[in-house]
Structure to design on (290 residues):
C-alpha cells in the first residue's frame, strides 16, 4: 500500500498545509485531511508512512467522541454526511479526513507531562526542573512524575515550540482562559490515561490545542495520537532507559544513528523502518479505539 504525501481537491479552496494535515475551507466548516507525511526534528521526511493519516484521523475521532463532556471542533468522519461537492473525492477522503467547526486557534500549545522524558528529562538532568518547575532530586529517566504537569509552549511557525512559564501563558491568553485550558488539558490527560492504561498503554506526555468558536473554548486539531503524544507499552515499561514506544520515537531513534544535521533535506527511510512505523501506529489505534 503506497502512502499519500499531498492532497489537492480541485474546486475546494485549500487554506494551509501543515506538517501532516491539509486544511480546506468549506464555508461554515473546515475539512482536515491527514496525509501519510511524517516529520522528525521539525523536518518533513521524503517518504510517506502508509495508513498513518487514516489511523491518526480515526484515533482523534475516537477521543473527540469519547470526551463528549469537552467541547471540540469535531463534526463527523462519516463520509456519507459530507457536503455534496466532496462526494467525487470519496477515494481519497474516506477515513483520512474529518469535518470540523471553524475556530480561531489560541496561541499556546497545551502540553501535559506525566513522565520524565524528552526535553523534560534533558532539562531535569541539568537543572533539576522541567519547564522551570522544580522536581524532587534523584528521579530516573522515564520516571512517573509526582503528578501530571501542565507545561505550556508557544506555537512557532518554524522550528521548535518554546516552553513558557505559567505567567507568560496567562499574559498570552488572559488568566481566565489560561486556567480553563490548563484544567481541561489535565482532565483530558487524566481520563485518557485511565482508558489507555486499561489497554496496556502509558501516555507519557501529550499536547493539546484549543481554539475559540463563538467565543467558547473548544478542543481542536488532533487528540492523543502517536504524533502528539508519547505512548509506551505498559508491559515493557521500566525507568532508567528510553522506553519502547508506539509513536514516531522509533523514527527519531533511527535518524539519530545517521550522519545527518537535522536540517532539510531529510534522509530517506528504509522500507523496514517505514513498515515498522506503520505497525506501531496501527497497534496503538487498535489497542486504544477497539
Amino acid at each position: 500500500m503506497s502512502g499519500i504525501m499531498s492532497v489537492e481537491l480541485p474546486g475546494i479552496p485549500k487554506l494551509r498545509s501543515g506538517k501532516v494535515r491539509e486544511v480546506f475551507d468549506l464555508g461554515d466548516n473546515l475539512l482536515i485531511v491527514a496525509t501519510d507525511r511524517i516529520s522528525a526534528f521539525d523536518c518533513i521526511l521524503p517518504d510517506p508512512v502508509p495508513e498513518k493519516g487514516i489511523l491518526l484521523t480515526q484515533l482523534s475521532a475516537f477521543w473527540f467522541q469519547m470526551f463528549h463532556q469537552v467541547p471540540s471542533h469535531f463534526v463527523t468522519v462519516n463520509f456519507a454526511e459530507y457536503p455534496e461537492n466532496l462526494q467525487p473525492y470519496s477515494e481519497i477522503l474516506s477515513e483520512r479526513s474529518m469535518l470540523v467547526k471553524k475556530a480561531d486557534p489560541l496561541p499556546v500549545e497545551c502540553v501535559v507531562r506525566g513522565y520524565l522524558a524528552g526535553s523534560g528529562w534533558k532539562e531535569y538532568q541539568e537543572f533539576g526542573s522541567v519547564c522551570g518547575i522544580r522536581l524532587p532530586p534523584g528521579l530516573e529517566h522515564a520516571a512517573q512524575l509526582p503528578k501530571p504537569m501542565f507545561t505550556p509552549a508557544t506555537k512557532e511557525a518554524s522550528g521548535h515550540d518554546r516552553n513558557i512559564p505559567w505567567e507568560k501563558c496567562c499574559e498570552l491568553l488572559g488568566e481566565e482562559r489560561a486556567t480553563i485550558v490548563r484544567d481541561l488539558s489535565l482532565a483530558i490527560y487524566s481520563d485518557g490515561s485511565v482508558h489507555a492504561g486499561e489497554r496496556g498503554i502509558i501516555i507519557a506526555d501529550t499536547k493539546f490545542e484549543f481554539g475559540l468558536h463563538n467565543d467558547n473554548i473548544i478542543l481542536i486539531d488532533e487528540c492523543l495520537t502517536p504524533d502528539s503524544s508519547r505512548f509506551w507499552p505498559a508491559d515493557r515499561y521500566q525507568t532508567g532507559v528510553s522506553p519502547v514506544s508506539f509513536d514516531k520515537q522509533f523514527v527519531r531513534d533511527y535518524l539519530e544513528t545517521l550522519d545527518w544535521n537535522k536540517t532539510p533535506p531529510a534522509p530517506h527511510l528504509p522500507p523496514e523502518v517505514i513498515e515498522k512505523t506503520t505497525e506501531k501506529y496501527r497497534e496503538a489505534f487498535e489497542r486504544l479505539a477497539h
About this structure: The helical segments are 52-66, 90-93, 118-127, 166-173, 175-198, 249-256, 271-289. The chain has a mean pLDDT of 95. The radius of gyration is 19 Å.
